[in-house]
UniProtKB/TrEMBL annotation:
Its main location: membrane. Residues 273-300 form a coiled coil. It is an enzyme of class 2 (transferase). It catalyses: ATP + protein L-histidine = ADP + protein N-phospho-L-histidine. It is found in: Cell membrane. Residues 180-232 form the HAMP domain. Signal peptide: none annotated. CDD domains: HAMP, HATPase, HisKA. This is histidine kinase. Residues 240-453 form the Histidine kinase domain. The chain crosses the membrane at residues 7-26, 159-178.
Length: 453
């Protein structure tokens, strides 16, 4: 069932329940008020009767009966005088003998009325009134037909039912239009999503309200935009990968085609073999990095807690000897912080950055590695005194296979995937990475991570 109809049914059901409850409450109040009104009328009539028969009670029951019969005919009811024990003293119908004990619920009252529904006579009203205001111990019991009460109640209930049926019908229509209006954005979202194809990914829906549906539309727009960016990156990556792999393959093909003609020239033959080995190794490294990149994008992060002081020890053990071999000094400015990261991937990221810093730094220079708390984040900085990056290359250094000219001159074996992999690892951890650099003065790379303890 569609959400529109579910909402319609829910709203309508709730309104029907409210109408039923309202009907029961108002009907009960009306019945109670009506009974109170008729009780007051009966009490007034009863006091008038008592005023007339007070002189015959408790002296002569036979003299009381004619009065009771006459007054009973006037009020269209039956009048009975009860003694102080609530036994019959005189019956206007002369059917109950003196001293008869009656088993009526109304006799539990000192004064008041009860309404009963009987099978044979319909509604009957019993009213009991004491004589005590005349300083006499006794009671007047009035039995009257109350079918008129039932008729009025039924008429009022029928009127209420008609009113509520009209209200329910109107509400049904209103609820339908409200549910239709409320679910319209959802239907539009479904239409937009159904229009998305592998070749056409677009999502736009005009919605002004800043509610959950607006947030959903905004999230879907962002998701589609991210998919488009991801698709574009994938296409660009595949195109660049094909081109980058094609270059060493072309070189290898050229070398292998010329090798048979260079057998007599041993020096050139050996040079070609070395070039062939170099290109094969370069392509092997590129393929390995492509496989590593694919693994980074697909693997599920298994985050554990790493202390920055332990990270310092890891860097020292891994790179101290390599740095000393180039007479490069490693300096540390570390604050004790706990990071929540995937240890294997994160250490791969650090390895790449430190390796680059050492690779592109001259001898007798310094590399400063800092880790500190920065605006509820951990800032990791790696500053070297190397060749730096030109302004034209700086915006592109995190692109796949991009290599700055100066970097290529320093290191021919690089594939241009290192910093791209670093960026992917950082972003998978929800962090950001940025770089500041000046040619011939050095480069500083900053990583900001939110998963900090």
């Amino acid at each position: 069932m569609k959400i529109q109809y579910k909402l319609w049914m829910i709203f309508s059901s709730l309104f029907i329940m409210v109408c039923i409850f309202t009907y029961m409450v108002i009907s009960n109040l009306y019945e109670n008020n009506l009974q109170t009104s008729y009780e007051q009328i009966s009490m007034a009539q009863g006091h008038g009767v008592i005023e007339q028969v007070k002189n015959t009670y408790p002296y002569a029951d036979n003299r009381s009966i004619p009065y009771l019969r006459a007054y009973g005919e006037e009020i269209d009811g039956r009048l009975i005088i009860l003694d102080d024990n609530k036994d019959v003293f005189a019956d206007g119908f002369a059917e109950l003998s003196k001293g008869t004990n009656l088993n009526l619920r109304v006799l539990t009252l000192e004064s008041g009325a009860y309404f009963y529904e009987t099978e044979d006579f319909g509604y009957i009203q019993y009213t009991i009134i004491p004589f005590r205001q005349y300083e006499i111990n006794g009671y007047l019991l009035m039995i009257q037909d109350a079918e008129y009460l039932n008729v009025e109640i039924q008429a009022f209930q029928n009127w209420m039912v008609r009113i509520l049926l009209v209200a329910i019908s109107i509400f049904f229509m209103i609820a339908y239009f409200i549910s239709n209006w409320f679910t319209k954005p959802i239907r539009q979202i479904i239409i937009q999503l159904n229009n998305i194809t592998p070749n056409k990914r677009s999502f736009y829906l005009k919605y002004r309200s800043k509610d959950e549906i607006g947030a959903l539309i905004h999230a879907l727009e962002n998701m589609v935009n991210e998919l488009n960016l991801y698709g574009e990156r994938q296409r660009r990556f595949l195109s660049t990968s094909s081109h980058e792999l094609k270059t060493p393959l072309s070189t290898i093909q050229l070398i292998t085609e010329n090798l048979p003609y260079l057998r007599e020239d041993q020096e050139r033959h050996q040079e070609y073999i070395q070039d062939l080995s170099f290109e094969i190794e370069k392509m092997k490294q590129m393929v390995e990095q492509l496989l590593e990149l694919n693994q980074i994008l697909d693997v599920k992060l298994e985050k554990t807690s790493i202390n920055t002081m332990d990270l310092k020890d890891y860097i020292t053990q891994s790179f101290q000897y390599i740095a000393e071999d180039k007479h490069i000094q490693l300096n540390f400015k570390i604050e004790p912080i706990k990071l929540l990261v995937d240890e294997k991937l994160f250490l791969r990221c650090i390895d790449n950055l430190i390796s680059n810093a050492i690779r592109y730094s001259p001898t007798n220079s310094q590399i400063t590695i800092g880790m500190k708390q920065f605006k509820n984040q951990c800032q990791i900085s790696i500053f070297d005194e190397g060749i730096g990056i030109s302004k034209k290359d700086l915006p592109h250094i995190f692109e796949a296979f991009y290599r700055a000219n100066d970097a290529t001159a320093w290191n021919q074996e690089g594939s241009g995937l290192g910093l791209y992999i670093v960026k992917e690892i950082v972003e998978r951890h929800g962090g950001t990475i940025k770089v500041e650099s000046e040619e011939k003065k050095g480069t500083c790379i900053y990583i900001y991570l939110k998963n900090v303890k």
